[in-house]
Specification:
- The two termini are 32 Å apart.
- The longest helix has 17 residues.
- It is globular and about 45 Å long.
- The chain has one domain: Protein Transport Mog1p, Chain A, CATH 3.40.1000.
- It is 19% helix and 44% strand.
- By secondary structure, it is α+β, with helices and mostly antiparallel strands.
- The chain has 3 helices and 13 strands.
């Protein structure tokens, strides 16, 4: 029997990492390229999550990504977004909430751990939301985020999941389900 909290979320697992998302958010696009990968999730109305990740042969250089995403943040500020830093996240996480003049909110979050070859950049879209909803959601997502250890890696999306040996990799898949 599932708890009420479990009924509100589902586990998403892909490429050796996993996290919880709202139950009505589902995978809508996957793009795997040589050096980066992307997933998008939608609910019934809109794009809700974009995740880009890189697995590097060497430790990730934080300055490289801070410069790249700092420029994007400057563009949002120029459009009138108010920026709020999100506190009380697990170590290796940082996040910022951008509140746009028309009421939309965009939350950006990074997961970058020293010495870890996995870098993740999340964008969570909120067409209309209180200031608390995006913050609660990124805290829950970050707390639930796990990187698979061991020989078996979990994969889960929609309403199915499986484990397979780590050596099996998804090397390319252009996948797009109907958009909202």
């Amino acid at each position: 029997m599932s708890s009420p909290a479990q009924a509100l979320t589902h586990r998403f697992a892909w490429d050796g990492f996993s996290f919880d998302v709202p139950a009505d958010w589902n995978l809508s696009e996957v793009a795997v390229r040589r050096d980066t990968a992307l997933i998008r999730m939608e609910d019934d109305a809109a794009l809700r999550l974009e995740l880009q990740w890189i697995r590097s042969a060497r430790p990730v250089d934080p300055a490289r990504f801070q410069d790249r995403y700092g420029q994007a943040a400057q563009r949002l500020a120029a459009e009138g977004a108010q920026t709020t830093r999100v506190d009380n996240l697990p170590p290796s996480w940082s996040a910022f909430l951008y509140s746009m003049p028309e009421g939309n909110r965009l939350l950006t979050a990074f997961r970058m751990m020293a010495g870890d070859p996995l870098f993740c950049f999340f964008q969570l879209h909120f067409p209309s939301a209180s200031l608390r909803e995006p913050v609660r959601l990124i805290r829950a997502l970050a707390l639930s985020f796990m990187v698979s250890a061991g020989d078996l890696v979990a994969w889960a999306c929609y309403d199915f999941g499986f484990r397979c040996p780590r050596r099996f990799r998804l090397v390319n898949t252009p996948s797009r389900r109907g958009g909202s």
